Amino acid sequence: MSIEKHPPAQPQDSAPPPTPWQFVRLGDYRLPGPLGATAALERWASLKRIFGRGSEPELPPVKAEADLRALSQSRLQNLARPIDWRCAVPALNAVLAEWQQAAPVGEAVRFVIGQPHCGHAQILAQWAADHRAAVVEAPSVDRLLGDDGRWLDDWPAADRLWVLPNLEQCYLRHADGLGLVRSLLERAASGALGRGVIGCDSWAWAYLRRVWPLPQPAALTLQAFDGPRLSRYLAELVSCPGRDCLHFRNATTGKELRLEPGSGDAEVSPEVNYLAVHSRGNIGVALHSWRSALRAVPEQEQQVQPEAPAEVAGSLPAAVPDAEVDDIVWVSTALREPVLPAEGGEAMVFLLHGLLLHNGLPASLLPELLPQPRHRIASCLLELQALGVVVMAGERWQVSVAAYSVVREFLRRRGFLRDDF
Amino acid sequence: METSQLTKIFNTFDAGVIVELLLIAVAATLLIVGLQKLLHWLADHLHGQNRLYLLAMAPLLRLAILIASLLVIVPLIIEPSLQNMVALLGSVGLALGFALKDYASSLIAGIVAVGERPYRNGDWIEVNGFYGEVRHVGMRTVQILTADDTQVSIPHLRLWNDPIANANCGRPQLQCVADFYLHPEHDAAAVKALLQDVALTSPYLHYQDPIMVIVHEQPWGSHYRLKAYPIDARQQFRFISDLTIRGKAALARRGIRFAVAPVTAATTA
Asked: 3-state DSSP call for residue B1?
């Protein structure tokens, strides 16, 4: 993949390249379709996972993995910086503008559904700040289990726009943990709480529709990052000034991966397409896989190391070769995903499913929600943490972004309830 | 049957034919054993419907291999004319009918079982008071593994006369029932809703199937039957335990009293 050295000059009155961020109705979400070799690769990888085989490359690579090193944090920051969720806010503005203007008629509440690691809470928090909307915090565990209606009584005034970014934290899969969310959804859907936007994780959404079936709400979600969209986004992330001579090459085949900023019709590299299909359009997962696939030869990596921390943000250090010298970043084709034990036992499966349904849970709550004893859950958590499957985020255990695709497939094969993405 | 007629029916056996027969028998046996092991290995890596499809294929393939082997073996043993076949099958039929009636009946029932499929590998069946998962549909018997980890072999000939209860009929899910016996003084509608939530919050629940609560009023109290489906039939006992434990806890938190058996009934029992 390489960045276009000489992109065609844009006419003055031409439209800017389309943003990769787009919010659509849930029914309009389109999974990136596997095509040709991508489909075969995905199926082969899935088969190997089922029968416990690794993902070792079958051809002798152009660059052996042992000869390559992971990029330094500063270089990674220049080539594939973490997602700034504020970039998605204009797209959300665009779809909610009509709803806002229609006030006070029309639907009282809009739902925004996000896949894990797709930043729905951050996007909604920023949207709320931009629109001076009141942000409603999720209730405490005691209030959830006690069906304490004071949380709803303390709701912002009906004439004020409000945002509830984390509906997944407003219930517990517990016989006493569903009352409050039912009351909330009933009052919100009837308009009794005024106008607002509710954000919800996609797995919790799948579960809550069985708890309190909503009458076909016009829920929104981020459109899938398919091959062209992902390619455009990855190109946008490259922020170093030396991008003209920057080349991404497949470490196995040596072929160049081309990123074409702004040209959606251009042919997308099979590697990027595979990434989009494998991540099912989840931009958080796709970017994590991309970042962990980037490699450099050690000498080259030393050459581009910044001499001072101040240079990290954008400028290339003096040691960087001039424009005639190509800067090659190797892209590893071996997916670095944690491997789940083939038969990890019921405790592990239930734990992973429970974490996904709540988008993370504190350790103290897990024995309340799972049939296994506390010590079994604790040992299972430690085992999964060692494998890189779960991580502690704040005070909540979550399925890690690296393991999300594997865990989703693991649960799908076992027939567990999962999201619609 | 005279000796001259017998020699006409049977081919001459020489060492080559005997070796050929042995090779066919060994090859068929190896193929059957290998296929069954392979199918079970594959099934162990799969879940749900795919696992059951694979397990159900084992007896079908075994039958196909046996028929194919017989088709190859018979012409080696006898001259395959209509007259010879009638004479041989008649003799074999008579021998089986008198000496090995039950055995032959089980073999034939085994073939019927493969075709009619009253039970397949992975099904949960009850025959003559034995309830368990079908682990192997053999030529003569079906082997089930009970919840107490006991293997029970049941001859296929039970198929002719005994009722066979199949709880899942080739589906990965089956209905489970958790019973609750409550003191009659309570809000029945609230208890019904609570028990539904108990099922809805079980990690074992298969969400695509319905949850039902059936209430029976009895002289001693109220009998609630909570019916739901686990994700996998093999989880049924753990699912019922989970429903019972969490159901009792939820009812106790709301101060609902449980029914106590009357003294007379308890002593009689």
From this structure: coil
**Closest by Cβ to B47, choosing from A177, A211, A414:** A414
Contacts of A350 in chain B (CB under 8 A): 203
* B114 falls within a domain: no
Same domain, B207 and B255: yes
Q: What is the ipTM of this complex?
A: 0.82
Residue A413 lies in a domain: no
Evaluate whether residue B202 is within a structural domain: yes
Cβ separation B203–A353 shorter than 8 A: yes
Taking CA atoms, what residue in B is nearest to A172?
A: B201
Task: Using CB atoms, pick whichever of A176, A413, A417 lies closest to residue B207.
Answer: A417
The answer, yes or no, to whether the previous bond of A104 is cis (omega within 30 of 0) is: yes
Q: Which residue of B has its CA nearest to A350?
A: B203
Residue B116 lies in a domain: no
pLDDT digits (tens, 9 = 90+) for B137-189: 888 889 999 999 999 999 998 888 889 999 998 888 999 999 999 999 999 99
Angle between helices A283-293 and A404-413 (to 10 degrees): 120
CATH number, domain with residue A198: 3.40.50.300
Domain with residue B151: its CATH number is 2.30.30
Q: Does A36 touch chain B (CB under 8 A)?
A: no
Cβ pair A415:B246 closer than 8 A: no
